[in-house]
Amino acid sequence: MADIAAKKRVRRGQRGAVTRKIGEAVGLLQAEEPDMAKLEQIGATLEEKKEALRDMDKEIEELIEDEEELVDEICKGDEVREEIKAIISRIDALRTDASSETRGVSAPMTTPTDIIHATPCKVRLPKINLKVFDGDITQWIPFWESYCSAIHDNSQLSDIEKFTYLKSLVEKTAKEAIAGLSLSTANYQQAIEILKRRFGNKEKIVNRHMDLLVGLEGVYSDQKLGMLRKLYDKVETHIRSLEALGIKADTYGGLLCPILIKKLPPEMKLTISRKLSSDEWSTDKIMQVILDEIEARERMDLKGRDEKRGKERETHTGATLFSGGDNYCCYCKAQGHNPESCRRVSSVEERRQILRRVGRCFICLRKGHISSKCRSRWKCMKCKEQHHTSICNKGTQPKKDEKPLNPGATSFTSERATTMYTSPMKQAVLLQTAEAVIRNPLSNQRGHANIIFDLGSQRSYITSQFSRELELRVLGKKSVTILTFGSKEENSQRCGLVKARILTQDQTEVEVTMLVVPLICEPLTKPCIQDCLRKYPHLQKLQLADQSTQEQFQPDILIGSDFYWQLMTGETVKSKQGPTAVCSKLGWVLSGPTETGTDQDISTLVTHVLRVTTESGTKPLDKRLQAFWELEAIGIVDKEEDVYEQFTDHITFEDGHYQVALPWKNPLENIPDNYDLSLRRLNGLLKRLSQDRELFMTYDAIIQEQLQKGIVEEVEEPELIAGDRVHYLPHHAVIRTDKETTKIRIVYDASAKQNGPSLNECLHTGPKLHQKIVDILLTFRSHQVAIAADIEKAFLNISVAPQDRDVLRFLWVADIAADVPQIKVMKFTRVMFGVSSSPFLLNATIQKHMQGFTKQYPYIVPKLLQATYVDDIITGARTETEAEELYTIGKKLLQKGGFNLRKFVSNSSELQKKISQKEIGKEGIVALVRGSQKVLGVLWNVDTDELVFDLRDISREANEISPTKRRVVSTVSKFFDPLGLISPVTVQFKMLFQALCRNKVGWDEPLRGELLQIWNKLAKDLMRVSTVRVPRYYLSQMQGEQSCSYQLQGFCDASKGAYAAVIYLVAKSDSKRITQLLIAKTRVAPLTKQTIPRLELLAAVILARLMSTTQEALSRVMKLDSPRCYTDSEIALHWIRGKDRAWKPFVQNRVQEIRRHVDMEYWNHCAGLDNPADIPSRGQQAKELVGNTLWFEGPKWLGMQDREDVEWEGQLPAECLKELRTKDCSLTCLVGKVSDKKGIASIMDIERYSSI
């Protein structure tokens, strides 16, 4: 065994060397001009390595006795040799190209077609350049046909060689679709199937072509001949593509003809009408008429241009002689600007592709030769290397391992990043720019930098490239919140912090601290500053800080407000015309408008950074608390990008379990290994566990059990990885004494990071496929027979694709009893708890599995899916028979997917006995238990069938702590009431939170004065009530009743401290009528003071939202009549039900939203004393709430009879007029009314208020 291990170590080193050589070869092959001598040397080395590895493999295979291990060894050896052969083949093909080029034969890009024609044909056939497929489904068929002809059907190529070519010919979404598949023979066919399924669907391709036809941009002027030709070509392309799919133009001509006619200029429409009668209209005939007209116009246009050119050759103006003729751009083929100033084609990569396509030199841009044969000595003005300035990458592209300043900001092309400002008078705006020598204070390294001053930025920045040139030492990393132009939200990230010194004119130095960023902005185009000196007298004697004559200005440093005035003296020179000069220690800098005297495009820098703040340790807590009083924070959640399609492409079912791939945000992004961090965290964990021997043994037993079950596996050779990444996860123990089964859970920290992003930051969280907790609980309370269960170790029942397992590595010890434990590397083979994408992968897998049985069980499958939250299933039925069927079928269906449903709990003792008899005695099954059980975090007493809110632990902690803001938040966060059944109690704590923030109380500052009194009062109130109990089943009093109808009735109210909404279920039969509290929602009033009518309107908004959500959830289990909503505010009711008026935006927007959720005819007025929403809007002590029938059952009339809807047209209150827009406030007269009321009634209507 020792001999085998030694040989494997040697082979591992050889394979590592091969991997590095292959990587080096790939880099050379992708270069613009590959170094053939170097490639041939690498090819020879790889050939030797291949033979050496073959011999080593044979020696190791002879020593292996286990058959499975031997098969695995042979497969791995074949894969390595096939990779080597593929690279050698590419080098040979490129060598053939190079030799043909030296013979004077044009050598396009090497493709597999060369291999096809290399051997059988004596005469070398023309090469075919395969077009790269980027995921555009309209291009799939031509790509696939050409790919099949050149590669897929080529018997001379192995599958791994085909796979290599396939990966080089796909990009963007197509590349992402197969990015998770490692380069191997077995994966080639799987990659082809994924691409066919994703992009080869005929129906999708046809729909896409039709969408593009309908969405083509019209041309409405006969003068735009080029656009007319472009429109014709696009329509013709789509028609021919549809014909290739078997869709004739006649089948959709009736739809396309009128759409096409609308996109044409009036004169061409008239021409078509003259040449074709209405009966003759068809796609082919219309296209022919359009083509004839375009060709006729092109002939006339060509003749006119020839005449114009002739005149131009005969006449030369002074301006022409002076300028040397018009500048010509070879990228956009337009006159008037140089190639490096082209704004239509701004991407460097696009420019390079154009040069390759038309055969221009990369140095001088002329045709007829390539850059290696160019005699020009032209060098780039940016980096001084030998290529044209227009295709220079310096300063425009961050390195792969660097992040943009704000990934949340809107993406801008260079055309937008350097915003142009020109006026009819050819006026431009100068920026404050300078040139200076920058010195590294530690190494004395110096460099010349382009500096831009920007008072709109709070911090100063330096590009990472210039920082590396100066070899600046990173002094630390700073967490900053950055908000850039075009961004809707803040982005938090860590930037390196460096110090450098700027040399001034008087030979002194100014030390500045800067944040390192990949790129400050795109290159700026600026007018010639020397022209300003000649043109404006007030500038002529000034020595400028920017003496550059170049048009392009690439900033290396941005000086923000933090160091701006350390470099500026404050002295200015102004004039009525021309820019303003500001004196700095580097010289005078210019800013402001200037006349350019040319048609040159002038760029100005848009405000780069609007706000940068340092994150404090308490900011996450502040953000969490902010949700309590945000006006629009109710039920609004942004959805993440849908990754479900990517999931379905990679899911498989193998060996009784589903296998999935991790949903990477960027399949090609590197991730740090985190080994050092994981090792440090492991050492700390071992020290803690060694203090509790029993816990240590339990922790190790969990890992050993997972190892035996194949959930984790030991990594024998950590240097070898199956995919492209490796990452280690720290872990720790979480102890839960309230759990019946797993009391100790090992939690893996996928958010840990060191020198790069964490695993969670690299993965999509995925769409939230699970149901809302509120919806599940609402339907759970509607079942007479309730049943709850969970899926045993749900996440660990799903396998992770082999290529992704190496990012799920962790460290453990071989023997916990050893004095010096040996560290061993483990990795997960299953989906693990703690990774951000795991809930999505679990829910998506269960959903996909269960949906396969929908036809067989059309009632049960949707019901189970609607009742599933992650690994919990909370459901029920009307009868015990139906509930038992749910249990039997649900358990059977999930077992087929490798999931075990267990821990069944039911309020029915008969059903419990039946299930218990089947479950007890099975391995891994926990018998049914009685008493109180947690259901989605809410305590359910199975015996009494009640939802229980146990306040004892919270009360005990509240009365024992010395209250600070942090401890108050920690204590109160233990309230969990998703249905708002005890919201009158919890809202008082929310209002206290707001008071703490309003008074700017520090997180660790003790409460004093009135705030302390409020806290003590709330804490003592909790001691008086141990529990609050609410019946789980809504309709327990309606059992045996026939022909029941159901209706939702809601109430809303507001006070100066909070606003609230509450909904009741009204059930009625011929002989009985009951009401039950369903759900409530509270919000504290905004920090910005609002009027009571506005707060009443906000209460109506959350009632409308809550009503819509509740109706949607309960409509699955019962038929509901039209809802009713009540408010005691006449003003709010006028806004909702009154005539449409031009209200101010605050009122207008909210009224529109209310009407979208609930029709205005369903809104009515109720007296303040009958409004149960008044209770949570003001808050109530727990002792008083327990016996409050108004809260739990609603007003008395709600349970007695239907209230008739009154045609409500109340008198418009004067307060309503305050919310009218100013231009619509046209009150023309005042009407007085004599009242005979006496006392307080003569001043106010007391019936409008619940309490005074």
Automatic annotation (TrEMBL):
It holds the Pfam family RVT_1. Keywords: Coiled coil. Residues 438-592 form the DUF1758 domain. InterPro entries: DNA/RNA_pol_sf, DUF1758, DUF1759, Retrotrans_Pao, Rev_trsase/Diguanyl_cyclase, RT_dom. This is CCHC-type domain-containing protein. It comes from the Eukaryota. The keyword Coiled coil applies. Residues 774-901 form the Reverse transcriptase domain. Residues 36-73 form a coiled coil.
